[in-house]
Amino acid sequence: MGRLDDIDLDAKLGSDEYEKRLAAAQERFVELRLTLGGQIGDDGIGPGLLVVIEGADAGGKGGAIRRIVERLDPRHFDVYSYAKPDDREKRHHFLWRFWSKVPGLGGMCVFDRSWYGRLLVERVEKFATIEQWTRAYNEIVEFERSLVLEGVILVKFYLHVSADEQLRRFESRRDDPLRKWKLNDEDWRNRDKWDQYIEAAEDMFERTDHQLAPWDIVSGENKKWARVTILETLNQRIEDGITRWEMLNTPTG
């Protein structure tokens, strides 16, 4: 039994409860974001915020990101979407293309996919050697620890859906002329390796879940549930991160 087996894919929210909880969570998130950025409060600029969203294809990453940033001023965040590295990026260490986008103090970024591609698609599709992706577990954890200790609140989400729900969403995209651009041949091929991706994800959770940046695995089967759960969890992680930041920056002696 892996961590994905423990996810309740039947969890749902009705429309009324969804709207109520979403509005409350978004309002709290705006308050926290402005506090981190030094726009409100008396403590000045706080730590940076980096939200990493991983998950199955058609798992709902885009919709979740839109709800996270929906009420923010566009000057107060950046969103970066990562696909396979280009030829120039392949000449560097695999973390190189992410490093410069990590937010500084008071900043905020959302990564739609991330360095975890080394442990997922690059592993399964053999774009990375066994030596490269096995070495990457420790490289990623040490990288993340250094970010947090230097002033970044790092929050990691994985959106999980069943194979049947993924197929339903693929077919919906295929039949929608305004959404079919979101689906390509590679997405269909990846479905044939569903079990391999599940195995890779479970190894990823086991070896890259650490105290400074734990994984939050969320059911994406019901989009309303996923969006509210992500925002509510994000708020709690930020509050915890602010407390850690204050402890690390409190003079002793």
Could you walk me through the main structural features you see in this protein, from its secondary elements to its overall organization?
This protein has 253 residues and is α/β, with parallel strands linked by helices. The protein is 49% helix and 12% strand. It is built from 10 helices and 5 strands; from the N terminus they run αβαβααβααβαααβα. A 5-stranded parallel sheet has the order 2-3-1-4-5, with helices on both faces. It is globular. It starts with 14 loop residues before the first helix and ends in a 5-residue tail after the last helix.
Task: Please outline what is shown here.
With 253 residues, the protein is α/β, with parallel strands linked by helices.
Main traits of this protein?
253 residues
The SS-based structural class is: alpha/beta
Oligomer: single chain
Mean pLDDT: 94
Q: Given the C-alpha coordinates, what overall shape results?
A: globular
* Strand and helix order: HEHEHHEHHEHHHEH
Number of helices: 10
Strand content: 5-15%
Head-to-tail CA distance between termini: 48 Å
State the strand order across the main sheet: 2-3-1-4-5
Let me know the number of strands.
Answer: 5
Q: Which ranges are low-confidence, i.e. pLDDT below 50, for 5 or more consecutive residues?
A: none
- Radius of gyration, whole Å: 18 Å
How much helicity do the residues have?
40-55%
Largest sheet, strands/sense/barrel: 5 strands, parallel
